[in-house]
Design goal:
The complex is a heterodimer of chains A (356) and B (380).
Chain A: H1 2-14, H2 16-32, E1 39-41, E2 47-49, H3 50-57, H4 59-75, H5 82-101, H6 106-132, H7 138-141, H8 143-156, E3 161-163, H9 167-173, H10 183-201, H11 204-213, H12 215-220, H13 225-251, E4 253-255, H14 263-273, H15 285-304, H16 312-326, H17 329-355
Antiparallel strand pairs in A: 1-2, 3-4
Helix pairs in contact in A: 2-15, 3-15, 4-10, 4-11, 4-13, 4-14, 4-15, 5-6, 5-8, 5-13, 6-13, 9-13, 11-13, 14-15, 15-16
Chain B: H1 2-10, H2 17-39, H3 46-55, H4 57-71, H5 79-96, H6 102-130, H7 135-163, H8 177-184, E1 186-195, E2 202-208, H9 209-227, H10 229-239, H11 241-246, H12 251-277, H13 289-299, H14 311-330, H15 337-362
Antiparallel strand pairs in B: 1-2
Helix pairs in contact in B: 2-14, 3-9, 4-9, 4-10, 4-12, 4-13, 4-14, 5-6, 5-7, 5-12, 6-7, 6-8, 6-12, 8-12, 9-10, 9-12, 10-12, 13-14, 14-15
Classes of the chains: A mainly alpha (356), B mainly alpha (380).
Amino acid sequence: MKNTLKKIASSLNSLMIPLVALFLLLLFNLFRDVSFFRITLDDKGVLSGNLVSIINSASELAIIGMGMTLVTASCGGQDISVGTVSAIAGAVFAKMLLKAFTVITIPTILLSVLVAILVTILFKLFNGVLVAVFRIQPMIATLILYSSGRSIASWIIVDATTKIEDPLVRYIGMTIPGSPIPTPIFITAIMGLVLVLIFKLTNLSLYTQTVGINQGAARLNGINPIVVKLLCFGVLGVCVTLASVIQIGRIGSLTQNTMLADIEMDAILAVAIGGNSLGGGKFRISGTVLGAYVIETLMTTLRSMNVDTSSIKAYKALAIIAVVVAGSPVIKALASNLWKKIREQVFVGTSKEAIR
Amino acid sequence: MSQILEAPRKKREKMTNTMLLMTISIVIFIALYIYAVLNIQGFDKPEMFLNLINENAPIIIIACSLTIVMIGGGIDISVGGVIMLTVMSCARFLNENQIADQTLGVIVTLLLALGIGLAFGLLQGSLVSYLEIQPFIVTLAGMVLAKGVASMLFEDWKVLQKAQGARNITNPKVLHEGFKALKNLKIEIPWLGYISPNNGKLIPAKIEIGAVIAVVVVICVFLMLRYTKKGRHIYAVGGNQQSAMMLGINVKRTRFFSYIMSGMLAGLAGFAYLIHDASANITSVGVRYEMDAIASSIIGGTLLTGGVGNVIGSFFGTMILVTLKKVIKLDPAIKVSYIQEMASGAMLGLFIVLQSIVLSTRGKGKMRLPEWLKFGKRTT
């Protein structure tokens, strides 16, 4: 009993930054406008409201963040090509669906997603081989696809924008009729559950951390760092494809030149806000997902305050700086010292009284 | 036995990895340039080489700033945003305060550019070094902040222009006479020029002020990193923080200093950009500059892990990148724009892999400190 309590306490401690940030943001909204929290059923029987839309629209970020956490943990660096590779994944998906199958049914959609996942994994393995075998720093190895990914997508699918307005595809990004919860939330939950099951039930979590902390020690203990790193990049490939398909379903068209632009920066930010070290090693996927929700809550708050679109970026940056300053090791140490002193004084005071 | 006796005489000083990486980048640049001269029209004139420096002076300057930060073990991705903010605010400042004295106007603008850079350097440096936050996140926030403020300034400018009844609002252009004179001030070198085939007149090769600033910055930063105490401290801190601390180096202050240098150089790069372009286009200024600068530093032999690197190498790294872009742009065989981007990506990949292979054939991937930084005599 005591052990489980301790475990919960330690996991809460490592999730401190995103939880506190989320709490502060929600508290701010509570004082600003209580109607921010209103959730209603609209006439189509779908839940709507700020909280639902936050969880819904953070799905892509959360899914990509999961993969990014693994890559960060094992390689000690970040993949900056996720946004451009998602364009490739979308192009492959659209080409398979529209040019190869031409009919849109559930099996063809599933097959197209499968093909897109395979192609994306190949691209990610290219990055992975550069990182794991050639020992190039991840940011540079992925710079190649970062600068050429969107043009590869244009080369795969020739048109500038491709409309995919079939209701079956739209269900992926919107809601399935009869379900009150938007589909992306389900996909995020399933993806998170699968990853947690795979990584917690097997030793993979331990292996990934070991490779990230000390590659040489991992190799001496019989873990193959190359395989672990390639696996992490493969998982990231799956995540990127899912995010891309959700995005296509949400918009109803493929715009490979602007699709999921700048998501790599937000994903890295989510990883960092989630309390993971960007230098590799220990990781917590739940932290990253919370980090993604923090970012989306921040954006929704700014939008609901009617902040000008041109200045929303500046406010976002200030809020991010506030979050990272609050979560910085120095401030944390100061706070815990202060807490200790207060507790000691209170404790000493009461004990003295007891003696008297 | 005889081998052992002869060994000390035959042994020659082994090249450090910094030198090796720099040499590779110089060799690649020369090979690329020879290919361009032989195959692509226009590269046979020395003017082309000078133009490459003229056009890309800001990238050369921020490659220097990234080299400093990366040697110190950090990273700064805010430079592109700082350039955008500097260009936007300097252009608006010059237009809206009609400073009569022309030299004074230019000097005040330069100070404004450096001041903006310094402000970002102070903010990011204090967050990274004294509050120990991860540099990527801090400078990412800095980039978003700078771009956000720049677009706020731009929207504000648009509203002002509309109020004044202007039509065709595009982007702020510098109208200040003194600055225009600086833009048009070019150093002419007649003997590097060529005779125009149309009218037989001699067209001299020109060097712009921005290019002069860039070259001076490269030389100054090189000397600073190599011969001053501060510069060597940066290498030591990036190479191994613990041992640097034990040697009595103030790690936090050194790191803080590297970010201040980086910020100020980014401000200067913004000034150089304004000299070349004289207008502030919000959609194109500084976009992707940070990635170009990081890539050129790395091609030039700087490691993201810190402690290894050289500014001269970064200069050649930048030249490789921009030459590659120009070659692909001018190559008659490649016309479609997306194939151009794919080709430049493929070439970048080729260089990176080549570098990695050359490195792994010798030191087994292990990096060492530059030779001149080692303390005391080498054993063995």
